[in-house]
Structures are given as structure tokens and as C-alpha cells.
Design a protein that fits this description.
about 110 residues, 3 helices, single chain, 2 domains, mainly alpha, flat
Length: about 110
């Protein structure tokens, strides 16, 4: 008896779920158990106690990196899509020049 497409898919699904469940159960029974230690319940996996206090995040520095990423991302995307078929190469070259100038301005502002 030949199985139709839907019934063979259902049989394959049931068999794969059964094998997955079997591997999960066997693995759970033979796997090594970790020791319960005091540091296991700490917020960090290494068990290190965190000193109290508020964490201060420098959003201005993050913003500068986000702008760098955006500039490079748009530059690479525009170069990759326009240079593959070079009909008019002046637009991506102009955009690259403007991008390099803006990166230079950001770097100069960051140094001050």
C-alpha cells in the first residue's frame, strides 16, 4: 500500500517527534547533574555578587556608534547594489564622498 503525500508527511512528523522525545528522555536520565551551590542562584552565572548601585550608561557614545553603523551600512548597501550594474557610477561615488566627510566630522567632534 502506497502512502499519499499528506499521510506520509504525518507519519514522518510522528516518527520524528517520537525519536526526539526518546532522545530527550534518555538524555535527561543519563546526563550529569550539577551540584547545588550558593552561587547558582546569583544573578550572574559565575556566582559573583554584584555590588549595589545604579549602572550608568553613556547614551551619547552609543548614539555615535549607531550613527557610524548607519552610515557604513547605507554606504555598503548603495555601493553593492549600484556597482554591480555600473550605469551611472557618479551617484555612489558622490555618496561615498559625502559619507567619508560626515564620518570625518563625527570623528572630529568626538575628539573635542
Amino acid at each position: 500500500m502506497m502512502l499519499t503525500g499528506l499521510s506520509s508527511f504525518a507519519l514522518g512528523l510522528v516518527l520524528s517527534l517520537a525519536v526526539t522525545l526518546l532522545i530527550y528522555v534518555i538524555g535527561g536520565r543519563i546526563s550529569a547533574r550539577g551540584k547545588d551551590e550558593e552561587g547558582k542562584l546569583e544573578p550572574y552565572a559565575c556566582g559573583e555578587r554584584v555590588q549595589g548601585g545604579k549602572i550608568i550608561i553613556n547614551l551619547e557614545q552609543f548614539f555615535i556608534y549607531a550613527v557610524y553603523f548607519m552610515i557604513f551600512h547605507i554606504l555598503v548597501f548603495s555601493l553593492a547594489t549600484t556597482l554591480s550594474r555600473p550605469i551611472d557610477v557618479s551617484v555612489p561615488i558622490l555618496f561615498a564622498a559625502v559619507s567619508i566627510i560626515s564620518i570625518g566630522m563625527l570623528a572630529f567632534k568626538e575628539k573635542r
